[in-house]
Amino acid sequence: MKYLLIAFAFLFSLSCSFPHYPKKYEKLAVFSHDTLKNISTNALACNQLKIQYLGCSNLLIKYKNESILLDPFFSNNPGIKTSLGKIKFNPIYFKKGSDFVNKYGNSFHDINTIFISHSHYDHLFDLAYLLEKDSLNDAVKIYADESAKTVVQHFLKNHTFLNADSFVYKKNTIQKWININSEMRMLIIPTSHAPHLGKLHFMKGNTDNLYFKNFTQSTQKISANQFKEGHTFAFILDILKADTIAFRILIKGAGCEINNGKISDEILKEHGIDLAIMQIASANFTDCYPQNLLAQIKPKQVLITHWEDFFRPYAPRKIKTVRATNFSYFFKKVKTIEGVWPVKKLSDQFYMPKPGTMVMYEF
Question: Which stretches within the chain are classed as H helix?
Answer without folding.
Answer: 2-15, 23-27, 79-84, 91-103, 121-124, 127-132, 146-152, 209-212, 265-270, 291-297, 327-335, 346-349
